[in-house]
Amino acid sequence: MPVYNACVGKRPPRSLLIRWALLATFCFQWTNVQGTHHDHSATPRDPAWLLGVNLDDIPNAPIRPVGSGVCPDAKCDGTDNEKCFENCAAVASASDVYGCPRDRHWALTFDDGPSALTASLLDVLDEYQVKATFCVLGAQVEKFPHLVKRAFLAGHQIASHTYSHPHLMSLTNEEIVYEMKATEKAIEAATGSRPRYMRPPYGEADARVKAIMRALGYKMLLWNVDPTDYKIHREPDAPELIEEVFYDIISGKSPSPNPHDDEGFISLQHGQCLFIFRCYVRSCGVLKD
């Protein structure tokens, strides 16, 4: 995966991060703008998409209903990840991408778009000359194909985040193929290019899901830094918690999860809160200087 953003150097000024946290409190539009979790039943299904996809060697793992992977006392230390997959996300495989391989390199990734705010997000990226990876939903790509095209032509990487943002482990093999193929077709229509990376919604993917992704030619993109920016609209102390995650990493704290002991970082963001992102990218600029 291309390493798009190298944030190196000193700790950002305290005043910068305070300003970042204060601005973050104004992100009240979060749930109203994005609307990204679509009805899986509306995902396009073309039986022709199943042709040429070899599902014979897919592990015969059980379908896991939504809610069956929630544990009140999950450790997520590798001993209970399979059982508590909705708490712990995926069990790492050797081919999964979690962080940048090079020290002091930081890659920004944005999930669940595009949306009505993506144009402004792209403006911020242009302003600070930062490239990012957009993990897009097929249903959203169909609504905003011009924004996906703009991002692609600007040199950003486009990855698949499925069509409707389902819990993939709750779907049949064929339903998973439809989710990926429908998104693939939407991205190809917008950019003329097929994505090579995918990010599973909620980070959930067992051996069955991963085998299907390999059969479809995808490599799995995860993350080792999660600022939990999705909490900004519902938790009063979310700005401080996001700031703390940023400080911890810059100060040398090991990221988590980091199953491959990557020296660099891939952080999970969502493009709904431009105030957070503008300050985040500005902080990276400070680190570069």
Describe the structure.
The structure is a single chain. By secondary structure, the chain is of the alpha/beta class. The protein has ten helices and six strands; from the N terminus they run αααβαβααβαβαβαβα. It has one domain (14-24, 87-288): TIM Barrel (Alpha-Beta Barrel), CATH 3.20.20. It has helices spanning 14-24, 30-34, 85-88, 118-128, 138-143, 145-153, 173-191, 207-215, 238-250, 274-288, and strands at residues 106-111, 133-136, 157-160, 197-198, 219-220, 265-270. The strands form two sheets. The chain has a four-stranded parallel beta sheet with strand order 3-2-1-6. A two-stranded parallel sheet has the order 4-5. Strand 1 (106-111), helix 4 and strand 2 form a beta-alpha-beta unit. The longest helix is centred in the middle third of the chain and has 19 residues, at 173-191. It starts with 13 loop residues before the first helix and ends with a helix.
Strand/helix succession: HHHEHEHHEHEHEHEH
CATH superfamily: Glycoside hydrolase/deacetylase
Radius of gyration from CA coordinates: 18 Å
Please tell me the overall pLDDT.
82
- What is the helix fraction of residues, given as a range? 25-40%
| Count of spatially separate domains | 1
Largest beta sheet: strand ordering: 3-2-1-6
Number of helices: 10
Q: Unreliable segments (pLDDT under 50, ≥5 consecutive)?
A: 1-35
Determine the structural class based on helices, strands and strand pairing: alpha/beta
Question: Major β-sheet, in short?
Answer: 4 strands, parallel
Give the overall form: globular
Q: Give me the count of strands.
A: 6
CATH class: Alpha Beta
Report the end-to-end length measured between terminal Cα atoms.
Answer: 25 Å
Which fold does the CATH topology refer to? TIM Barrel
What percent strand?
Answer: 5-15%
The CATH architecture classification is Alpha-Beta Barrel
